[in-house]
Amino acid sequence: MPARRPASLPPTTPTASIFSSPGDGNPGKQYAVGRVSKLPGLYFSFPVTLDGRFVGTVAVKRDIANLARGVVAADAFIADQNGVVILAGDKSLEQRTLPGAPALSMAKEKLALQYKQTAFEPLRIAPAGGDFPEVVQLNDGPPLALASAPMLDVGVTVFVPRPLPELAYLKLEQRRYFLLLLLAGGMFIVAARALVLYLRAMRLAGSRPKRPARRRNRPITPRVPSWPT
User: Fold this and answer.
1) Extended strands (E) in 77-118
2) Which of 12, 13, 186, 223 is the one with CA 20 to 30 A from 39?
3) Integer Cα distance of 47 and 24 in angstroms
4) Where would I find the H helices in 47-186?
5) Could you give the strand order of the β-sheet that contains 135-138, starting from the edge strand earlier in sequence?
6) In which residue ranges of the chain is pLDDT below 50?
7) What pLDDT does residue 211 have?
8) 21 in a structural domain
9) Does one domain contain both 58 and 145?
10) Could you tell me the residue range of the domain that residue 33 belongs to?
């Protein structure tokens, strides 16, 4: 008999697609705007099995507002698995798409259900020209180095730009030192790694139900963990 969808699932759960992966025995993940709360979040789902048989799914929602401080401090931005920027230190980048993002070819019905909008303006990320192909321009801005850290288990990619306006003024004899200076300024990589670790810890925390503490000489009473919605 196929497992029924539990009645206790949060009403803000965005779409049924997040539950298909647990049904196959794999965790699911998805960014979406809540149907009822209208608040964006990262949704994670985990399979529940009994004697090796799939019996249901546990869903967890994590509010992305908790990431805002770190994103702003690093002047970073985060894109979901559809290439939509869901959080950014520069708010003008939010709800825009990366070049070639899967969201650009999604049906409008799916976009409306998941993002509560159907039109997205693409970001312009292009080589800045010159001798350094690693240097790009974001929306025709000044030259910058853009570090990225994909997180397949969370379903997002963290981007941390490092502006390099001084590149335009480098003399020819200084250019050979540019890459060394870029590596020496590795704090933007550290910032990206910190956001990656936070997101991964957030996901793992949702996958571990709380267990009641064992008390000496007292029977253990099973309790159902309360999952945030």
Assistant:
1) 77-80, 85-88, 96-97
2) 223
3) 8
4) 68-74, 108-115, 178-184
5) 85-88, 77-80, 156-163, 143-151, 135-138, 125-127
6) 1-13, 169, 171-173, 176, 183-184, 212-229
7) 52
8) yes
9) no
10) 16-63
